[in-house]
Structures are given as structure tokens and as C-alpha cells.
Write a structure and sequence with these properties.
Citrate Synthase, domain 1; three-stranded antiparallel sheet; 5 strands; globular; acyltransferase
Length: 389
């Protein structure tokens, strides 16, 4: 074993556990389940939310678990004990080196290429360097998942450090996985609160239910595709985040903490622009993710002496709702978490794609047990009995 997770004193979690306990729990009696969906992976209370992972509520996981705990849960069906977690991280760190051709591609790809587009494209190349990629056996799929959980973050880190003009750096096997990731993306060590916020951000998005991306991953795997292809297809099924400029402007305005500037900016938004920033129908208004992210936004803002920015964000939310009828979704708060942590907000979508690898893998493993997906029947509605005169 090449190292064990960096264990933190229990008191670091106690205060945040109390905060999470205050969050409302979804009404089980109001649950709506997707038709013909049978899964052991998530409990889906509506088509936009996955708030239970293999029987554990997101509240419970956010209170005391990590992204690696949650990844293990999704892959193996149980929360790992300390020995299992140490072994899991050891396996990951053993694969913490990119194939040379992939490292060369990172160096040679133009920096203006979107980070999400880059990682999903490189993901499709990874099976070329994995001798087990042709096997659909459960052990081989789990091995591929381990490599993806290490290689996709490494690809993202190396590219971001290139963008920032920083020297290349390696994962430290003696500290926690998420701390490694945060440090290498920012060149600084997160505070205990920042570390916990980053963990919750990642684990909350490890599984988002049976959406189009999960269906795409299941479909590819059920027809013989390897996990790399399934994950790459899932990533490609999510539209690229092409509104970084609008999001950067929003953060810039909010960071001023000026009420007049905030109101002027919020009033200038069209419903379409608000949606791009992370607003939408109020279906997510009471979601656990949104509440968790808002909680961390407040305390991170307090820690960074940026309470005026957080107050400006809340004022803008009320005004945007009054003007457009759209409510903030968790992605709106996720952007502010990254900003408070010193992580480039343009990495929001790439980090989400990376976070979803365990959940997509769980869907793939489940689908492989259930057999091939049957395509929907396509009815022809065009003209018939045509002929040339």
C-alpha cells in the first residue's frame, strides 16, 4: 500500500454536520418515479433530482463522507471502512500517471479549446492505452473506472496548470484525493471549510439520476462499448457550457457588492441569459443540493470576508425571480463556491463531468447485468407510394 487517506479530526465535521441537519428533507410521500425505471443506484424523487445514493440520503453523505467514499459506494454498493478506503485510494494513486501520448496531446492542444470539449475528446482515446478495455467483465469495468477517476482529474489539472503558466505537478499519495485536486487546481492549500465545501460539491454531483447522459452511457455499454466509450458518450450528450463570459460578468458584478450595480445588472438579464447563469423553473427550489451549496456559499464568503458579494447574489436571485419567474438552481451556487475557493469558474462543467464518473459507471454495471437496451420504436410519418413520372 502506497499511502493512506489524510484523516482529519472529527471536530472539523461536527459544525458542518449541524448545518446540514437544518436542511429540509424531501417529502417521501410526494416522490415521483420515472416510468419503467428500475435501479439500485439512486432514488429519484423527480426527473431532475437524485437525492439518495444506494439508500443513503445526500444529506447523510454530505454530513460526514467524501467524494471517494461516495465513489466507492456507487461502484461497490457500500460505504467503505478505513481499510477499504485506504486500499481504494492506493489503487487510484498507483495509476496517477498519464500515458506519454496523452501528456503530449495536452501540451499540443491550443489553449482556447474548451476544457469540457478537451476532456471528453481525450477520454475517448484512453482505451488505446488500457489492455483491459476490451473486456466487459465487472472486474475490468471497475478497473477502467479506477483509471478514469485518476486520469480525467490529471488531464484537467495538467491542462489548467498549462493555462495558468504553472509547472506540472503530481498527486501526493499521502494526502486526501480532493485536497490534492483542489491544491493542484489553485496552487494553494484549501482551509478545512474550503476542503469540506469542495468535497460536498463533488460528491453531490457524483450521481444525478437517469437523465439523457446516463441513458447514453447505458446504451453504449449494453451494445458492447467499453466504459471509456460509455463515459465519453455521456459527456458528449451534455451541451457544452458556452456562456463563460456571462458567468464571469455576473461574478464580477457580484464581487463589487454594490446594490445599485447588482440591481442594474439583474434587470438587464433576459430569461435566456438567466437560464444560462443557472436559473430555471422552480422544480429545484427546495433541492438538497441547492440548500447545501447555499450553506457553503455563505460560510465561505464569511471566511473570505466577502459577505457583501453573497448578499448581492441573494438580492439578485429575488430580483431575477420577480422579473423572469425563474429560480436559482444549484449550478448558480456552485459557481460561487468555486470562486470562493479560488478555482477558475470555467472549470465548473469539467468538474461536474469528472464528478459523474462513479454514477455513470454504476449505471453501466447495472445495465450490463440487465442486458442490451432495446431502442425506442421509430414510426415513419413521411409520404408513401411516391414514384417518378
Amino acid at each position: 500500500m502506497h499511502g493512506s487517506p489524510h484523516h482529519r479530526p472529527e471536530h472539523l465535521f461536527s459544525g458542518l454536520a449541524k448545518l446540514v441537519d437544518r436542511l429540509s428533507v424531501p417529502d417521501e410521500d410526494a416522490a415521483v418515479f420515472a416510468d419503467n425505471l428500475n435501479t439500485f443506484t439512486t432514488h429519484i424523487s423527480n426527473p431532475q433530482k437524485a437525492e439518495h445514493f444506494r439508500g443513503y440520503s445526500l444529506n447523510e453523505l454530505a454530513r460526514k463522507n467524501t467524494f471517494l467514499d461516495t465513489s466507492y459506494l456507487l461502484l461497490y454498493g457500500a460505504i467503505p471502512n478505513q481499510e477499504e478506503l485506504a486500499d481504494f485510494q492506493s489503487i487510484l494513486t498507483e495509476t496517477a500517471e498519464l500515458p506519454s501520448p496523452i501528456a503530449d496531446i495536452i501540451q499540443q492542444t491550443p489553449l482556447h479549446v474548451d476544457a469540457s470539449e478537451f476532456i471528453r475528446s481525450v477520454c475517448a482515446l484512453l482505451p488505446l492505452f488500457d489492455s483491459q478495455s476490451k473486456s466487459g467483465a465487472e472486474e475490468s469495468v471497475l478497473w477502467q473506472a479506477h483509471k478514469l477517476l485518476m486520469h480525467i482529474p490529471l488531464i484537467l489539472i495538467e491542462r489548467q496548470r498549462l493555462v495558468e503558466g504553472w509547472q506540472s505537478a503530481k498527486f501526493d499519495p499521502d494526502i486526501h484525493w480532493a485536497v490534492n485536486l483542489a491544491q493542484l487546481l489553485t496552487n494553494r492549500t484549501p482551509t478545512p471549510l474550503g476542503e469540506r465545501a469542495f468535497e460536498v460539491l463533488l460528491l453531490s454531483r457524483a450521481e444525478l439520476g437517469y437523465d439523457a447522459a446516463s441513458h447514453a452511457a447505458r446504451l453504449v455499454a449494453s451494445r458492447g462499448g467499453n466504459l471509456y466509450s460509455a463515459i465519453s458518450t455521456a459527456m458528449n450528450s451534455i451541451p457544452l457550457d458556452d456562456w463563460q463570459e456571462e458567468r464571469s460578468l455576473a461574478i464580477e458584478v457580484l464581487a463589487e457588492g454594490n446594490q445599485f450595480a447588482t440591481e442594474k445588472w439583474a434587470r438587464s438579464l433576459t430569461p435566456g441569459q438567466a437560464r444560462k447563469l443557472g436559473f430555471g423553473a422552480d422544480i429545484e427550489k427546495e433541492s438538497v443540493r441547492l440548500q447545501l451549496f447555499n450553506t457553503f456559499c455563505y460560510y465561505l464568503a464569511e471566511e473570505n470576508n466577502m459577505i457583501p458579494m453573497e448578499k448581492a447574489a441573494r438580492r439578485s436571485e429575488k430580483l431575477i425571480f420577480e422579473l423572469t419567474g425563474l429560480s436559482p438552481h444549484s449550478e448558480w451556487a456552485a459557481t460561487r463556491i468555486l470562486y470562493y475557493l479560488g478555482i477558475d469558474i470555467e472549470l465548473n462543467q469539467p468538474l461536474q463531468l469528472m464528478s459523474r464518473i462513479p454514477g455513470w459507471t454504476a449505471h453501466v454495471l447495472e445495465q450490463l447485468q440487465q442486458g442490451p437496451l432495446v431502442p425506442a420504436r421509430l414510426e415513419y410519418e413521411g409520404p408513401i407510394h411516391r414514384y417518378e413520372k
